[in-house]
Amino acid sequence: MPSNPKNLLAWLLPLTFLGLFFFYPLARILALSLDFATISVGYWPRIFSVIAFTFFQALISSLITLLIGLPLAFLFARFDFPAKTPLRALTAIPFMLPTVVVAAGFNALLGPRGWLNLALMGTLGLETPPIAFIGTIWAIFAAHVFYNTTIVIRLVGDAWSRLDTRLSDAARSLGASPARTFWQVTLPLLRPAIFASSLLVFLFDFSSYGVILLLGGPRFATLEVEIYIQALQLLNLQAAALLSLIQLLCTLGLSTLYSRYILHAASPIKSVERIPRPARTLPEKAFVAALAIFCIGFFALPLLALPMRSLTRIEADRARSAEIRPAFTTDYYYELFINRRGSLFYVPPVEAAINSLSYASLSVVLSLLLGFPAALALTRPGPLEKWLDPFLMLPLGASAVTLGLGYIITFNKPIPLLATFHLPLSTASLLTSPLLIPLAHTTIALPFVIRNLQAALVTIPQRYREAAAVLGASPFHVWRTVDLPIISRAVISAGAFAFTISMGEFGAASLLARPEYPTLPTAIYRFLSQPGGMNYGQAMAMATILMLTCGLGIFLIEKLRLPGAGEL
Amino acid sequence: MLRLTNIYKTYDNQPLLNGISFSVAQGETVCLLGASGSGKSTILRIIAGLEQPEKGDVAWDGQSLAGVAVHQRNFGLMFQDYALFPHMTVFENVAFGLKSRANWQFALQKSANTRFAPRVREVLEVVNMAGFANRRVTELSGGEQQRVALARALAPNPRLLMLDEPLGALDRALRESLLAELRGILHQSGIPAIYVTHDQQEAFTLADTIILLHAGEISQRGSPAEVFAKPASGRVASFLGLGNVVKAVCVEGQKMRIEADISPKPSADLLIHCGHHHRPGDKVTLLIRPAARLDAAGRVAGRVADVVFRGEDFRVTLEGGLYFHLSAAPKLGELVRLSPEKVECLDGN
User: Fold this and answer.
1) Is the Cα dihedral A413, A415, A421, A425 positive or negative?
2) pLDDT-derived band at A454, boundaries 50, 70, 90
3) Which residue has the higher pLDDT, A302 or A461?
4) Order of all β-strands in the sheet with B2-11
5) Which of A202, A559, B224, B246 sits in a 20 to 30 Å window from A179, CA-based?
6) Is residue B45 domain-shared with residue B121, that is, in the same domain?
7) B103 with B247, same domain?
């Protein structure tokens, strides 16, 4: 079947864009990384230790995630209890939140100015925070578990709820104790799902960036963080490019493994429809209650601590001994609008919010303009489309940090000069332009947008049109009543996707955002790493705003989701 | 021997089992026969210990099993869709129950397999599946899976074997051949068995004792011959397909007149032979067995609505619904007159 000629036209814009803003920068990274001979000998041990640490933290994080996720998967797969649905939704929220929000949430709960330390200082009369959590590897582990447990709950929980309960009944009736039944029947049958979810969790932990940078601090460098350090702080682009290549290859290997195992995990285990039941015995009730309470504590507390902390003033009473008296305040929010330092280079946080909003809006418009023709072409696929389809998804595999690095390398005039003298836009390259961030965000969002639109467009079957026409509707009426509602719904949902991604994106922005054009996430990062209660409070306020904005986006996406659509 | 005493169980606040009591003696095969939803599978699950009764007791040789866990009861249970472990071979499935007896750390070792190999081979031969030991169970046909499931249940020499509609998922030809085999295996092994089915043919073929369940209660129990000869009620008779169950009124003595809306009505009142004393005007339930012959002086007359060839004879349905087995086929629409061989009164059985 020859390609639809209309499709060729549809492909023109999206492919030009991806070529220019994804494949070309990637090629530049690859080219530069081949220059690795120029990397000084002394740097190699550092590379190996970074790789080792990346694998180490990902391995430990995944193991803890599995340890917590498996009982939760069992809980949701096999038991009915009050508030089960909201609780399950709660465990899924962190996965969709920006890293800066999660980092700020943990900071508000467990940081030196967080609730727990304040409470302990208050009750024990201490001068300094007793718990050092932020800046330790435990903060990294905790945030990773917070993020990814939902993957285990979802993949393993689904497999578990489809598992024929009569298999374990059969094992028990054949004389197997509950322990042996679990080890020899249940666990082997869940193994593909457990393995696939572990791989996916490992993949996310492996390419973790914001969490490490914000919660681990400078002592911990994963590949992603090291790319940032080499590119921005040490200006060693060769090393950064090489690290990007390593990161890319590892990601590619892991995701190939994952896509192979997820097939087994999804392989239908013959199952009878078995509705989860309420806990009956006392141990069962204790199990359900304990896990439900754990769920609320672990998943809700950081998300609640953040907005509460952003509305609470504590420093005011500092002068009077160690007594801590929290009080309600909206100061942190008012302060966002004020340039108190009167500095030319100081940008009040509200401008970061405005920047983020305009970048996000631009990303929405761009990704819809590029994504719609591509999605339309994919719904009437010829050989070209089948070949192109996986290419369109490639940006999913490259990390945002790598993308940022690619832009720095590609749209680069000598960086040191620019960085030092803040050259005006006219004489410099694209790199000084604030446009680069929405371009990067469009590249990142495009695969999601295309998949979302494509999934909706294929749900408009010819039969609907025929049915409507037979019922006496004119072609325009058909389009207005059948096509338009589905398309507009999908466009809004895809736009919300792009918006949410852009608002929260930290990796690319941290490399590309110029001091005079901060985004909300980069501003939060900067305020969190500066001393002082007012900076901290403003970081909390901005993170709260970001959390609510992204929450709204997620809500919109979920509301508009067509059955079966939007899963990548 | 197994004894159930007054088992009571609700499901969704509806009584599912309402005071079930019966016992299974050594070497006896009991068939629980009932329509789907009559609670028969739940009885098996309660005996196995997979579910707890709300009232009542399950006892083995006089000892209550209330505190005994599923895996300590040594009852074999064969599931409706077999529930073979899909990640194991035929051998591993059959050996699974044998390993339970052994110390289970030992059971994890490879050497366990050689120790259990003779018994596995033995039961696989019993079910005609020798040579299938190393096959994956997912590669087997339905009938083969059924045999493996039976071998798996038999392997640890359970003191009681329970079979939950074991032939339900198979096609008819296979069912009939497997039914005969199953009968042989059950009688040879001497293991007491409870066989759950909704198919009265299976029950009559296998059972030493049939227990009929309806709405959570036992509506009749007895040997197949007893149940066949003396169904306890009209409902039992029609569930078992024993003949035409009709309402009638006593005219006098042993003369009954069919009350039901059947037209044309039998030309004359039917004569029954029962030991009961009926007074004129008494309402009775009659079972008109289908065996009959054409007879010009017959007491049942009607127009032929349907004729089905059954091999040895014809099933002839008259307008109004009464059916009979006749050796010769009348024409459709023909007015026939016939004599049923046996008419019984079901009240008082």
Assistant:
1) positive
2) confident
3) A302
4) B14-24, B2-11, B55-60, B63-64
5) A202
6) yes
7) no
Phi, psi at residue B245, to the nearest 5°?
-105, 120
Residue B107 resides in a domain: yes
Largest CA distance in chain A: 82
Are B201 and B117 found together in one domain? yes
Looking at the structure, tell me whether residues B190 and B274 fall in a common domain: no
Of B86, B87, B104, the CB nearest to A180: B104
Q: Give every CB contact of residue B215 below 8 A, 6+ residues apart in sequence.
A: B18, B38
Q: Which residue, chain included where needed, has tokens 């929010």?
A: A333
What is the arithmetic mean of pLDDT over B315-343? 87
Which of residues B178, B208, B231 is at a domain's end? Answer: B231
What is the model's pTM?
0.80
Looking at per-residue pLDDT, the higher value among A476 and B345 belongs to B345
Biggest distance spanned by C-alpha atoms of chain B: 79
The neighbour count for residue A271, using CB atoms within 10 Å, is 14
In one-letter notation, the amino acid at residue A231 is A
Same domain (yes/no): B146, B278: no
The model's confidence at residue A112, banded by pLDDT at 50, 70 and 90, is confident
Ramachandran region, residue B282 (left: φ > 0; alpha: ψ -120 to 50; beta: rest): beta
Residues in contact with A366: Cβ distance below 8 Å, sequence separation at least 6, in sequence order:
A17, A438, A439, A442
- Joined together, the tokens standing for residue B37 give 């939803």
With contacts defined as CB-CB under 8 Å, which chain B residues touch A180? 100, 104, 107
Residues B140 and B105 in one domain: yes
Domain boundary among B231, B256, B273: B231
Strand partners, B214: B217
φ and ψ of A37, to 5 deg:
-60, -25
CB pair distance less than 8 Å for B107 and A180: yes
- Residue at B247 is within a domain: yes
User: How do residues A51-69 score in pLDDT, each as one tens digit?
Assistant: 999 999 999 999 999 999 9
Per CATH, the homologous superfamily of domain A1-24+343-568 is: MetI-like (1.10.3720.10)
Evaluate whether B73 touches B2 at the Cβ level (below 8 Å): no
Tell me whether residues A269 and B86 touch, CB distance under 8 A. yes
CATH code for position B132: 3.40.50.300
Domain span at B281 = 243-345
Interface of A with B in 267-326 (CB under 8 A): 269-270, 272
Find the radius of gyration of the CA atoms of chain B. Answer: 25
Encoding tokens for residue B258? Answer: 């069919």
B269 to A139, A334, B70, B251, B289: CA distances (angstroms): 93, 101, 58, 8, 16
Q: A172 touching B, CB under 8 A?
A: yes
Q: How many CA atoms lie within 13 A of B260 on its CB side?
A: 14
Separation CA A72–CA A79 (nearest Å): 10
Judge if B219 and B316 occupy the same domain.
Answer: no
Residues A47, A223 contacting (CB under 8 angstroms): no
- The verdict on a CB contact (< 8 Å) between B83 and A166 is yes
Residue B237 domain flag: no
Q: Any idea what DSSP says for residue A213?
A: I
My answer on whether B82 and B206 are in the same domain is yes
Q: Which of residues 145-184 of B touch A (CB under 8 A)?
A: 152-153, 156
Among A85-89, A122-126, A298-302, which is the least confidently predicted range? A122-126
Neighbouring CB atoms inside 10 A of A463's CB total: 8
What does the pLDDT read at residue A31? Answer: 87
Type of residue numbered A90? L
State the first-to-last Cα distance of chain B, in angstroms, to the nearest integer. 29
Q: Which of B83, B86, B152 sits opposite A169 (nearest CB)?
A: B83
Inter-chain CB proximity B50 and A173 less than 8 Å: yes
Amino acid at B309: F
- Give the pLDDT mean for B280-290: 86
Residue A265's pLDDT is what?
A: 67
Q: What are phi and psi of A438, to 5 degrees?
A: -60, -30
Residue B188 tokens read as 């040879």
